[in-house]
Amino acid sequence: MFHVSLIFLRIAGIRTLAVFTTLGLCATQHPALAQTFPGAKEWAEAIVENAEHQRKWAGPRTPWPVEKPRPIGFFRVSSSLAPVSVHAPYGTSQSHIEHALDALESAYMQTRAAGWPVPFPDGARGGNSDFDLYLHPNAHPLGAAHSDGPIDWFLLDAVSSFAEVRPTSSRSEACIVSAYVQGVLLQQDPAESEAWRRATGDYLAWRTTGAYGCEGSALEQQTEPYRSWIQGSYGEGAGGALMLSLLSARFDLGDGTLVRELWQLARQHTWEGAGLRASPDLWEALEQMVKMHSQSLSEVLERLAIDRFLLGYDKQERPLRDIVGGLPPVPVAWTTEWNALPAHAPPATPAIGPGGSYYAWVDVRGAPRDRELWVWLRGEYGVEWSLSALGLGGDGRELHRISAPATRIPRAFLPVQIHEGTARVLLVGTNLSSRRPDADIPEENQRSMRLIVDREQNR
Predict the structure, then answer these.
(1) What does residue 402 show for φ and ψ, rounded to 5 degrees?
(2) CB atoms closer than 10 angstroms to residue 161
(3) Helix 241-251 and helix 194-209: axis angle, to 10°?
(4) How far apart are CA 430 and CA 309, in angstroms?
């Protein structure tokens, strides 16, 4: 008989699995036993060596968040309804403080009710164990979260944190919700990028207050469709709230489950070495989640490019608009008409970031029935491009759509059938990058493209 004893030891705050193979020890001490079980010693040593190898992380790493001292000279007002406190400089008006505390309490209770994590206690760094929000006149305009340092008693990577907002923000309630969410997410996954925290903070601000964060960055993102969705988005990531709203609308009917579970999938435990494990991140989690719906990340980005346009234009998209909110129309970079073909669009300026898109209109009201519109996309090398075409009626209703399969060759062609009632054809070119996005890596895949449009040649 033999057995393998598994003993968990806590060494320097890291849980380590120590494997003692009794059979291997006995085989070393008793040669007769080694003859009975040939190779027992080597087998035991291989198990130990393999276990030790498996415990070493060889993937990407990111530094721990920079620790910031808390503001001094502030007074504290604590909630009697939730474990949250507001800190403000002496002389701050009572109405500002009361409004901030109401918004912070609401953020805590609404996000908790929706299944989001609650803050960790902070060791009384703010005078008690509450989550602390500071009304600081020099805070980041979009609100910000800062780390106090690592928490070593929690199983997963975690830090203690606090949040700061400016006391005079024009969207103070949404700004406070966003800052609170950023603070909690920093605690829960300190390896994730600030851009993702801002995007999620502004997204949850929309869900709880009806406004996208401190400055409505998602609305600005809509008017600059060439921007990337997270890294490179408007407002240092805050514009990515629009993408999260669109994803939620498509995958969970707007109840927020998808975004919440993305963060849970990306959480991790770094057990050895310097810095934090940087994988999986939220982009990896999103890629796996859409695969569960039998879609690829490229297909989803292509669909979002169309959704964002229709939400600002097509009155038939009312259910989506109710979930995502009212959006300004996406700017159309180029227009032409049937009688002016062939036509060449100028190169896209500025260059289009990964996930960003270019939009063009073709007025086909002068086209004979059942003719085709021929469309070519010519993009710069180094990324994949998506080309889609939507036929819309005179009332703005979508009648048909077609997309060219994305390839590594930076060109695409679409023959677009013009059906009866089609008034205009929307053309959408989207930069699908050459790799999965990663908010920790400087983005180098901005590229330009242009469109060529012609009439079907005479048969």
Answers:
(1) -150, 145
(2) 28
(3) 60
(4) 13
Q: 135, 97 in Cβ contact below 8 A?
A: yes
**In the structure encoding, which two tokens stand for residue 230, read together?**
């997270």
Read off the amino acid at residue 73: G
Judge whether 147 and 190 are in contact, CB under 8 Å.
Answer: yes
Q: How many CB atoms lie within 10 A of CB 276?
A: 22
Spatial contact of 375 and 389, defined as CB atoms under 8 Å apart: yes
How many Å apart are CA 159 and CA 151, to the nearest integer?
Answer: 5
Contact 176, 107 (CB under 8 A): yes
Q: β-strand 131-135 against 84-89: which pairing, if any?
A: parallel
pLDDT digits (tens, 9 = 90+) for 31-53: 554 555 667 677 667 765 665 55
Q: Please enumerate, as own/partner, the contacts of 392-396 that have beta carbons within 8 Å and a separation of 24 or more.
A: 392/314, 392/422, 392/423, 392/424, 392/425, 392/426, 393/421, 393/422, 393/423, 394/365, 394/421, 394/423, 395/315, 396/313, 396/314, 396/315, 396/316
pLDDT (average), residues 367-395? 93
